[in-house]
Amino acid sequence: MTFGQLPYDVAHLLGGGMLLLSFVLLYQRRIGAVINALALQGAILALAAAWQGFMQGAPQLYLTALIAFGAKAVLIPFALRALLRRFDLHRNVETALGIGPSLVAGVALVALAILVVLPITAGSKAIAREDLALALSVVLLGMLMMITRRNAILQVVGLMTLENGLILAAVGVAGMPLVVELSTAALVMMLLVVGGVFVFQIRERFDTVDTSFLEIHRGERP
Amino acid sequence: MMPLSWALVFLPWAGALLLVAMPRERPAALANIGVSALSFLLSLFLLGHPGGTQGWTHIDALNTPLVVLSFLIGLTTAVFSLGAIAAEGFDALRLRAYHVAFQVFMGAQALALLADNMGVMWVAIEIATLASVLIVAVHGTPAAIEAAWKLFILCGVGIALALFGTIILYLAAQPFVGHGDSGLSWEVLLGLAARCDPGVLNLAFVFLLVGYGTKAGLVPLHSWLPDAEAEGPIAISAVLSGLLLNAALHAVVRAKAVIGAHPGTVPPGPFLIAFGLASLLLAAFALWRRRDARRFFAWSSIEHMGLATLAFGMGGPVANLAGLLHMLGHSLTKSAVFFGVGHAAQLKGSQKTADIAGLCASRPALGWGLALAIAAVAGLPPFALFASEFLLLTEAAAHHWWLIAPLGLGLLTAAAAKIHTLQALCLGDPTPDAGDAPPRWTDRTTLGPLWVHLGLALMLGAALPASLSALLAAAARIPG
């Protein structure tokens, strides 16, 4: 199965769509728009999982797709929006590294992912290795977002795209056992991050989770 | 009949269900001790178990001592918690959350060590992380929430990367395994590793090392650890540093065994040596700048995990034995120190080193017990850490001569910092007690666990029983 055949092309289109949305997440300046992009990425992830389920003849992946859609395209974005409204947070993205340099760094990370994955997986099937390169790119861009954004809510978004990349990798590897269980367990963690914010009523801290604020509590300063 | 390994996981979890219904302080703390004691007794059956793989779990020489030790420290921590809990000032909800999270953590810890399936191990470490986040955050103070948030985000990234490593390791084994769960079994992977593609194995190891290494507190991925151990409830520092770090390092060691089984991969040992040395040296110098007693000993955990990682990186039966002995000895002595320091912090109403002084004069039993425990953590003879560090140095001298200088520098700097803190905490003029110091009987729930740990550390260091020594020697052959 190579380029030009429908199953391969659709899988690539969906994986590429997720990567594109990772870049969209990096250049948005409004938190509301970031949450929309995250929801769209979750929906595409669900489609990718369902498509892999169809291609591999693995019905359990439909379940993964369903859970991913319900949680990542609907529930979590809804909760994040409620959070924004209720706590009246700053609506603007505060960056530690500017938008332009972030995008340059993002392109470099994608190049790195391709350079790392493609040569060493030469023995594997083309679809698995190229999916893995896309997934690794999404993972690295998620980490980049966590590093370069100051608002805690954007760090949560970064962690979620990182996890989206993981699930994309897991569904792309044919025959991987426990995919449903592992993706659900990873999702539980994301739900708890969002839930923890509600329970502990982290409000002002949301805007100031950066190291300068943390040091006050460290007991290292007299 | 449930297999022993699953019974060890579900007994604490059943205990957690029981503890949900116990809102009063003393009965809940006693029930917590009861569940922990039952789990510990059950774990002793592991020592007589023939071993082997059963479904998703396996019992072998490497995980048996770690599991038994985990449940032992779980029990002593539960006893210590009985005395320490009154001063925490929990309301009914927080009290239940604290006890439930404690037992959920214990079950997940056992599963993380006993799992043969990498996916199950990953889920177990995730559950243990979530439970520890809950415990660290339980006070709800700004400092506690900051610490929990940092733990959550950093370890969230860590375990996400570990899952990516798990997926890639499966990708490496995929051409050789049939359908079913066997593609994620450590044992099957160990057998297949020599046939897998070395490039894919290398990539998998990078992610597993960075992922689980974050959870093991290796430099430069350590920054969550001092906060988590200093801001959570006092009893929890003992299990966080004694147990969770071991489970993560155990996962790294298993991964190293699989990757190292292929002759064509980049050797994993030097990576572990580099991470270990960085942890040792950074922590040894960072120790001198700490003014908070609990943070000081949290940094010392980073140093000791670095030493154990270094030992496993050197590889071979002797160095592995040193690494394993170091993990066991560190868990025992460090939790003993946390019992003593935690109790002293409650007596003085502050955990700053300057506010706790002269314990030997004001509370001789606590003061001398703590002094001995700190000496044991500093690696002084005749305790276990002296034996493992001595073994490590002789092995380094024999095979990696260039390691001697940095290793010696790190060990001496760290030991000197600890002796300095020992003097500050235990000797000198006593500081006044806080007005609401805990009652006298809590001395017993502190000193009992502390002396049990010191006694066992002494046994590990000076008079290892033949059966245990045979078990450890068998374990030392597993990581390769």
From TrEMBL, chain A:
- GO cellular component terms given for this protein: plasma membrane
Q: Which UniProt keywords apply?
A: Cell membrane, Membrane, Transmembrane, Transmembrane helix
The record's section on PANTHER family has: HYDROGENASE-4 COMPONENT E (PTHR38601)
Compartments where located: Cell membrane
Q: How does it sit in the membrane?
A: Multi-pass membrane protein
Q: What residue ranges are annotated as transmembrane?
A: 6-27, 34-54, 60-84, 96-120, 132-149, 156-176, 182-200
Give the main location. membrane
InterPro entries named in the record: HyfE-like
User: What is the scientific name of the source organism?
Assistant: Roseicella aerolata
Q: This chain belongs to which protein, by name?
A: Hydrogenase-4 component E
TrEMBL record, chain B:
> How is this protein positioned relative to the membrane?
Multi-pass membrane protein
Identify one Pfam family in the record.
Answer: Proton_antipo_M
A GO term for molecular function: oxidoreductase activity
Query: Which InterPro entries does the entry mention?
Result: ComplexI-like_HydComp, NADH_UbQ_OxRdtase, ND/Mrp_TM
Keywords attached to this Swiss-Prot or TrEMBL record, sorted alphabetically, are:
Cell membrane, Membrane, Oxidoreductase, Transmembrane, Transmembrane helix
GO biological process terms held by the UniProt record: ATP synthesis coupled electron transport
Kindly list the places in or outside the cell where this protein is found, as annotated in its UniProt entry: Cell membrane; Membrane
Give the GO cellular component terms, alphabetically. Answer: plasma membrane
Which residue ranges run through the membrane? 6-22, 29-47, 67-85, 97-115, 121-139, 151-172, 233-251, 271-288, 309-329, 368-393, 400-419, 450-476
Q: Where is the NADH:quinone oxidoreductase/Mrp antiporter transmembrane domain?
A: 115-407
**NCBIfam families given in the database record:** PRK06458.1-3
Q: Which PANTHER family match?
A: HYDROGENASE-4 COMPONENT F (PTHR42682)
The identity of this protein, by name, is Hydrogenase 4 subunit F
Species source reads: Roseicella aerolata
